[in-house]
């Protein structure tokens, strides 16, 4: 039985679980992302078991149909919009998921790291220090107290981001398609229109699940409404923002973007975002921390063992 662990970018998967407990299973770890669906199909063709790290490798029907040996899939986290669970179900292939740690708290923490870094120019300041410079080319930045935080989405993560914004002395406003004034008020925010959110906020932070309704939700007209010097933060999913529209506005120098997620991941080495001074970047670290990895990989081993025993657990496409 052959098992593939995908997208172990940091080479940590084998450290966080007892893979050797899976007797009779040959484990192979893929540390790099596949360049194409065809490459993924070629590399994964011999494997009966595939263990996915979130949606790092998209797993659409077109790929599933090219994997004749596949019999079981384990997915870290609750869901992946790029995994076609229905196509797997039609093949009789169960998908088991895993638990996670913190209920999104690590994403909340990273959001505030990006907000502070963008507001105070920390990324450019750090580059200056390493290059032997000091304040060279740095703007004045701005303090968060008294500024407006606009939250696009006020669910579990958005509400926690709002609470920290209040602690900084920020005024919090929020919008999403189904948000009510009462729910916004209970989270310490004021419900506003999408237009006002972008036009009046000093920081706009996105906290929505990627779906067909939210894909491409943030477009040129939204970005153009933002204040000069305002910060746009995205720790949710890259495709929520129309990337060409974002690049166009960023090239004018009007805004600062602080991004953890991208249309394509890993972000290509020659991507224009990497060359812009008014962008703070992190490599999709919102859920990346040792507590999550420990739960992810131990639950994955547990999922595989249960399937091998004929009693799969945590199945999401039963």
Please give a structural write-up.
- It is a single chain.
- This protein has two domains: 2-101 and 289-308, 3-Layer(aba) Sandwich (Rossmann fold), CATH 3.40.50.720; 103-281, 3-Layer(aba) Sandwich (Rossmann fold), CATH 3.40.50.
- Helix 7 (181-186) links the parallel strand 7 (171-175) and strand 8 (190-191).
- It contains eleven helices and twelve strands.
- It is globular.
- The chain is an alpha/beta fold.
- The strands form two sheets. Strands 8-7-6-9-10-11-12 form a seven-stranded parallel sheet, with helices on both faces. A five-stranded parallel sheet has the order 2-1-3-4-5.
- The chain is 32% helix and 14% strand.
Ranges with pLDDT <50 over ≥5 residues?
Answer: none
Number of domains: 2
What global shape is seen? globular
If classified by CATH, what would the architecture of the largest domain be? 3-Layer(aba) Sandwich
CATH fold-level topology of the largest domain: Rossmann fold
| Major sheet details | 7 strands, parallel
Helix content: 25-40%
The CATH superfamily name of the largest domain is NAD(P)-binding Rossmann-like Domain
CA distance, first residue to last residue? 23 Å
Mean pLDDT: 97
Beta-strand residue percentage: 5-15%
* Number of β-strand runs: 12
Radius of gyration: 21 Å
